[in-house]
Each structure stands twice: as structure tokens, then as C-alpha cells.
């Protein structure tokens, strides 16, 4: 069993004496913002020993003989670590962990829960003039069993999803950084938009077809959702800016047609 805890551990304490998966994936970047591209896979030794790697590369072997077409893999985690470790950035991980320890993960959790609850309240209470909801939230509408990342879509008064590319454009005007699209998780997107397998099979990519063409062909209202993430550096001023930003989508009837093309997931 693999537990993806990347979005959970930045604001919560994960007790591996209570929950005992075989592997745990996490991102140090999501925990304290730097260095980018550095994470960790925590593995139980017995689970790691069961994995068989069908190839090898520099740093993952003890010896290799070309004429015999034979190699001896390194033991333990080393056989899965390709190339040179990121030794210039990895020392920063220790500094980041010390920072979290000094602040206290419980303190971070309490702070982010308060800020996140305010963001959720903003989205839940967002209504058009006729009373229709102006946002759809994916996941719990409170902070019970929720991390610090909130996925949602803004809605037109008639219930149509506001194009996420336009949301991103408005966010830039408010100096807000958001993630839009399917977040490298097309399965979640298919479930959120209730797309059947038959729909996907019947609308396969053709020659010269763009992602926009495909979205239109299968009748999707948008290419994905919007994601707002809170963390260690978030503050009340950020939530106030978000409230002003979200208010721009109340009674929004149409969006400009000059949106950039989608380039992928």
C-alpha cells in the first residue's frame, strides 16, 4: 500500500505507528517551499526488498559486465536512486525540518485550518443575484479530514463552469497564484465531471486535434478545476485578497473568447 501524504504532512502530523502503509510519498517543497523538486519516499525494508527493477543506471549498481549482460544491483534504496543525488539542495531539507520543528506542526495546522475554513466559507456563501451558487467545491466543505488544498470551480448563473483559463487570468490581476487544470490527475477530473468510459473511448484524439478540440468533442464545460493551496507563509491578508478575487465571479454572464489554448493536463 502506497500512501500519498504530499498534501497532508505540510500541515498535519502523520503518525506511522498508527497508520502503517508500505510506502509513504511526501514533498519537502510542499512542506517549507524550498528546495523545489526534492521529496522523499519512505519505505518499509521488507516492502522495498520485494521490488524488482528491470533496468539500471548510474549509481544504482555495484558492478556490470557488458559481454555477460549481467549486473548486480546496489542494496536497499540505493538501487532506485538514479544518477547523482541533489547534494546542493538536500542540505536545505534539514534546515526546513528544523524550522517546522521550531514553529510546531500543531501551530501550523491550527493557523491553516482557520485560514482554510475562511476560504471555504467564502466559496460556500458565494451566490449570484438569483440565489444560485457561484462556486462548486470538491471534497468536504469544512476542515474535517481535509488538507490545506481546496479544489473548486466557479459557476455561471446558469450553472455552467467558468473556464479555468479565465479564472487564472483574473487571479493574476489580484496577484494570486493558483493552480488550474486537472493537476496531473486525469482520473479525478473524469470523476468530478462524471465522464463515462464510453464517452472517452468515443472521442479519441484524431490527427491535428488539440486539447481544446477534444474538450469540446466530449462536451466538457471546462478543461479542469481550480486549486488554492495554503501553507506556512499564508496569512489573513491572503484570504482577504482571495475574497475580493472570488467576488468578480458573481453574476458573471460571459468570459472573453481570446483565452490561450490548453497545452495539456
Written account of the structure:
- The chain has 265 residues and is of the alpha+beta class.
- The chain contains 9 helices and 9 strands.
- The two termini are 26 Å apart.
Features of the shown structure:
alpha+beta, 15% strand, Aspartate Aminotransferase, domain 2, 4-stranded antiparallel β-sheet, 9 strands, 265 residues, 33% helix, Aspartate Aminotransferase, domain 1, 9 helices
Topology, please?
Blueprint: E1 2-4, E2 23-27, H1 28-32, E3 39-43, H2 45-49, E4 61-65, E5 70-73, H3 90-103, H4 105-125, E6 135-138, E7 149-154, H5 164-173, E8 179-181, H6 186-192, H7 197-202, H8 211-217, E9 225-229, H9 236-247
Parallel strand pairs: 1-2
Antiparallel strand pairs: 2-3, 4-5, 6-7, 7-9, 8-9
Helix pairs in contact: 4-9
Amino acid at each position: 500500500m502506497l500512501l500519498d501524504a504530499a498534501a497532508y504532512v505540510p500541515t498535519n502530523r502523520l503518525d506511522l505507528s498508527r497508520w502503517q502503509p508500505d510506502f509513504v510519498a511526501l514533498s519537502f517543497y510542499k512542506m517549507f517551499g524550498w528546495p523545489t523538486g526534492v521529496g522523499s519516499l519512505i519505505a518499509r525494508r521488507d516492502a522495498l526488498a520485494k521490488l524488482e527493477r528491470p533496468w539500471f543506471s548510474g549509481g544504482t549498481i555495484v558492478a556490470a559486465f557488458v559481454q555477460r549482460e549481467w549486473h548486480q544491483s546496489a542494496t536497499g534504496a540505493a538501487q532506485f536512486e538514479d544518477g547523482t543525488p541533489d547534494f546542493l539542495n538536500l542540505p536545505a531539507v534539514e534546515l526546513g525540518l528544523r524550522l517546522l520543528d521550531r514553529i510546531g506542526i500543531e501551530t501550523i495546522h491550527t493557523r491553516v485550518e482557520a485560514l482554510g475554513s475562511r476560504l471555504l466559507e467564502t466559496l460556500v456563501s458565494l451566490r449570484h443575484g438569483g440565489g444560485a451558487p457561484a462556486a462548486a467545491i470538491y471534497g468536504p466543505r469544512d476542515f474535517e479530514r481535509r488538507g490545506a488544498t481546496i479544489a473548486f470551480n466557479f459557476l455561471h448563473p446558469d450553472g455552467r463552469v467558468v473556464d479555468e483559463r479565465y479564472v487564472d487570468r483574473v487571479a493574476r490581476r489580484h496577484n494570486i497564484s493558483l493552480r488550474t487544470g486537472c493537476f496531473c490527475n486525469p482520473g479525478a477530473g473524469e470523476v468530478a465531471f462524471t465522464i463515462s468510459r464510453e464517452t472517452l473511448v468515443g472521442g479519441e484524439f484524431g490527427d491535428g486535434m488539440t486539447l481544446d478540440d477534444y474538450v469540446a468533442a466530449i462536451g466538457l464545460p471546462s478543461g479542469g478545476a481550480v486549486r488554492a493551496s495554503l501553507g506556512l507563509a499564508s496569512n489573513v491578508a491572503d484570504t482577504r485578497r482571495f475574497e475580493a478575487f472570488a467576488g468578480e465571479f458573481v453574476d458573471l454572464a460571459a468570459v472573453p473568447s481570446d483565452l490561450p489554448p490548453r497545452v495539456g493536463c
